[in-house]
Amino acid sequence: MASATKSNRIELRLTNEQKSEIEQAAALSGRSVTDFSVSLLVREAGEVIHVERDLRMSKESLDAFNEILDRPAKPVSGLADLLKRPSVFTD
After folding, report:
1. 77 CB contacts (<8 Å, ≥6 apart)?
2. What is the pTM of this model?
């Protein structure tokens, strides 16, 4: 698999201590600071995205939710009239 061209940059402001610790950890792991930093940032970003997008609920809650979805639809008073009105969001 060919790797994508890396042409984008992120600049970070760090204390001397933070920079030193990152450089030391990268060296201890046998990687460049860039490789070390990018791999951790991408992994953390993926976890944050997953948590924000993932809907979690108990089996009981899921069963109750599905039961509600499976119920027959009920007419909503005035909805048909509302849908016939011109949109207020057009220019």
Report:
1. none
2. 0.56
